[in-house]
Predict the 3D structure of the following.
Amino acid sequence: MRPFARGGMSKLIVSIVVYRSPLPVLERNLICLRQAGENAVARNLIEEVRAILVDNASGEEYKRQLQSLVCRHQEQGFGLQLVMRPDNGGYGLGHNEVSTAPEDFRLVLNPDVFLEPQSLVAGLAFLHAHPQVGLVVPWAEDELGVPLFLCKRYPSVLVLGLRGFAPSWLKRAFRGLLEKYEMRDVDFSTARRDLEVISGCCLLLRGKLWQEMGGFDHRYFLYFEDFDFSLRARRITQVAYLPEFRIVHLGGNAARKGWRHRIWFVRSAAKFFNQYGWRWI
């Protein structure tokens, strides 16, 4: 693991990929991002925040509404840009549209994630203080305060099948296996720097790492691009978790999103296991 050199004042480049994402949720996402970013700038951890919304061809009516939302935030002084893709190339390819200079920081953010006010202060301060760390993930809860456990152990086919598609009674029968996968036996009240796979709804990392890795592997249209990214990242840096870096994530699993998401989930899972090795139980 090589340390990342600390340069002068850096920017935070934020990428948010949308595809017909609910605009009231996106509005809240941007408000929270702006507040957290302003707090980080006030602490001299970054020079400024530049946020780029990438729309994956959501359609003309959505485009008009999205442009109106962006203009409204720009008029309020928020450094927000909009990139309109001609087609939907997937989640990873959308984020790869946004480049990041090596000296800057990068935040990969889902549109249904709400940063807490001091979250970026904590995450950026942690990266400044730990040059061996290239990537940090937050503590996440849903809107009811239920922990979401973004840190994972290497998955098995059984675990993913249970999480994605099994009824509640069957999940209860395999509760111990599922909790082990979610690392519920680990003390998450303290920082960790030894993570293997992580859920990627909110990733804070160094621009140099993003550039060296070439962003996400766009062959994962949706799902598992985050697992692939973290496994590749840990070959060259430390992947960390920080409890003071906090978010609320609305989320939702593939099964609840319809048959297309189920197909994408299964295809990406097969691609992941073919690349990194099959584990059945």
User: Anything to note?
Assistant: The mean pLDDT is 94.
